[in-house]
Design goal:
The structure holds 2 protein chains of 2 kinds. Chain A is of the alpha/beta class. Chain A has 11 helices and 10 strands. The longest helix of chain B is centred in the N-terminal third of the chain and has 32 residues. The chains are: A alpha/beta, B mainly alpha. At the A-B interface, helix 2 and helix 3 of A face helix 6 and helix 7 of B. Bound molecules: adenosine-5'-triphosphate and magnesium ion. Magnesium ion (MG) binds next to helix 1 of chain A.
Chain lengths: ~260, ~300
């Protein structure tokens, strides 16, 4: 049975429908990746898990249990941890306070876990008393991931963790995600950096215009001609290529400029 | 020089610490619940009237009844939130603003109905000022006001920087959505915000009443400078509100000092305009305030 399943999700914000029947599964211990052009609804699909969306149809299942209408805080209490694409840290809180907030729902002693997080991201240990908003982009992303990991999640959702990061930091983040996964935590990740993401994916989905377009193993999609044209480009400059799709109108037009907002 | 300190700077600090206490509540409710609470002034008035009645009943000193007036006011604020604001939580913020406007009129009418509209006094009689270092004049009640405000601000600091709920309040002022996604019990944080905001408002009302008197419009008259303090400091930034309150209080009093020649720079009647001018200037040139608060 899948740990997390989106079953035919249709919905959006306010009056507009963004997702039109999106389905996907995250299997136990697997890395599952979603790719797609800007504005395809990748982040929106993740928000659906936390009840941040107005749904007109479909269900969200966690371990087979229907959590579609569960309050956001409750979903987190069930061990579903989430690193949003933007605004994923509390900038005026210190690094350490961010991690403490990540452990908010824990009743037990979270100090040992915090030590593990500092081991995972050594730069954070040095800056623990510094306001998180003053850190560099890569370090903020570490705070965001560390904060989500304070709970020992049942499943981790990460939305474009490497957006805007230098190749060095990008490698670092991918390494950590694989580490977390090999500790047995299933991962659902949205990535613009399609080549790198697909190469570590057990399962991958292509979302276009709020609909499922393709689905395969990571290597399977890497070998797919359509994916190669859409995301990998001639030179493999995946981020640029993905934006190119959006610019050329293959994605939802409304999505232009959404990236990096 | 001593005139400057005794008649302008000291009153400015006293007024400023009262604004600071009021400003913390405005800033936190604005940051966390995302609406400008017009009823905050009336909350201050209510605190002063509670203190008045408690003094009548017990005969205690105003500072001794202060904690109880704060608790009573906080309980009322929690009740109001439960009945009047909570149903609007998921609605556009403007509905909450309008609800708070209605609440302002309701609390004021309830006060006028219960206590009447005559002036009342918390500390009867005139006290002789202490004279420190031969020249610094400060009356005992002003020492009490400044001392109480300092203790309360220190307590707020400890709450916000040392306790889990205090940190969660700052987190939610940063981003309510991320707070929810982090598993923070946001309803609990909202209740804590009302308790802190309303009890400090009550304290501001009582301290002002110690300085002047109790009157049904006293809180409403504080609303503008207190908003100015919150905006100057940055919305959702409690430390900003403290700094903003002090700055506005001091600026108001210094505006009537004879900086040039022998005439007051501004006639004292225009003091209130100073807070307004600072608020407008901040909204135009630096809407995030001194401490980089929220911009709506
Ligand atoms: N809070 C919101 N309110 C209204 N519309 C939104 C909101 N967030 C996103 N949208 C719209 O929903 C659509 C899908 O956005 P979404 O963020 O899910 O795309 P995405 O696939 O994650 O894109 P990106 O690669 O740029 O992150 C876009 O048209 C966007 O403008
Ligand atoms: Mg996105």
């Amino acid at each position: 049975m899948a740990v997390l399943e989106l079953d035919n999700i249709t919905g959006g914000y306010g009056e507009t429908e963004i997702l039109h029947g999106v389905s996907l599964k995250v299997e136990a211990a697997a890395v599952t990746v979603i790719i797609g052009p800007n504005g395809a609804g990748k982040s929106t699909a993740m928000k659906a898990v936390f009840g941040l969306l107005r749904l007109s149809a479909g269900r969200v299942l966690l371990d087979g249990e229907d959590i579609t209408s569960m309050a956001t805080e409750q979903v987190v209490r069930h061990g579903v941890c989430y690193v949003p694409q933007t605004a994923n840290i509390f900038p005026s809180l210190t690094v350490e306070e961010n991690l403490e907030m990540g452990a908010y729902v824990r009743k037990d002693d979270y100090r040992p876990r915090m030590a593990e997080i500092y081991d995972l991201f050594p730069p954070l240990a040095e800056k623990r008393r510094q306001a998180a908003g003053t850190l560099s982009g890569g370090q903020r992303q570490m705070v965001a991931m560390g904060k989500a990991l304070m709970l020992k999640p049942k499943i981790l959702l990460v939305d474009e963790p490497t957006a805007g990061l230098s190749p060095k930091f990008r490698g670092e983040i991918f390494r950590v995600i694989q580490d977390i996964n090999s500790a047995g935590v299933p991962i659902l990740m949205v990535e613009q950096n399609a080549k790198q993401a697909l190469s570590i994916a057990d399962r991958a989905y292509v979302l276009v215009d709020g609909r499922n377009r393709l689905e395969d193993t990571g290597p399977g999609l890497l070998a797919n001609r359509e994916v190669a044209e859409m995301f990998l480009g001639a030179g493999g400059a995946s981020v640029g290529a993905a934006s190119g799709v959006n610019g050329s109108g293959a994605g939802s037009g409304a999505g232009s400029g959404a990236n990096g907002a | 020089m001593m005139d400057f300190i005794n008649f302008h700077l000291m009153p400015g600090i006293i007024l400023g610490s009262i604004y600071a206490l009021g400003g913390i509540g405005i800033s936190m409710t604005f940051g966390i619940l995302r609406f400008a609470n017009f009823a905050h002034g009336e909350t201050m008035t209510l605190g002063a009237y509670f203190a008045f009645t408690l003094i009548q009943l017990t005969g205690w000193h105003p500072i001794a009844v202060l904690p109880f007036a704060m608790i009573l006011t906080a309980v009322v604020a929690l009740g109001i939130d439960r009945v009047f604001y909570k149903p609007f939580r998921a609605r556009p913020a403007i509905m909450l603003v309008i609800a708070s406007f209605g609440m302002m009129l309701m609390i004021r009418s309830a006060i006028q109905f219960s206590w009447g509209v005559q002036l009342k006094s918390l500390m009867p009689g005139i006290q002789r000022p202490y004279i420190l270092f031969d020249a610094l004049r400060i009356s005992p009640k002003h020492m009490l006001i400044i001392g109480s405000a300092l203790v309360l601000m220190l307590a707020v600091h400890v709450l916000l920087s040392r306790t889990k709920i205090g940190k969660a309040m700052r987190a939610m002022a940063d981003s309510p959505e991320l707070a929810r996604l982090t598993g923070i019990d946001t309803e609990m944080v909202i209740r804590a915000t009302w308790v802190v905001g309303a009890s400090l408002a009550a304290a501001a009302g009582v301290l002002l009443a110690i300085d002047t008197h109790v009157e049904t419009m006293m809180g409403f008259k504080l609303l503008l400078p207190v908003f100015a303090a919150a905006i100057l400091g940055g919305i959702g930034r409690p430390y900003g509100a403290m700094a903003g309150g002090l700055i506005i209080g001091i600026a108001e009093e210094l505006s009537s000092y004879a900086w040039i020649g022998n005439e007051p720079l501004l006639a004292p009647g225009y003091k209130a305009g100073v807070a307004f001018a600072i608020m407008v200037a901040m909204l135009i040139w630096r809407p995030s305030g001194l401490f980089r608060g929220k911009v709506f």
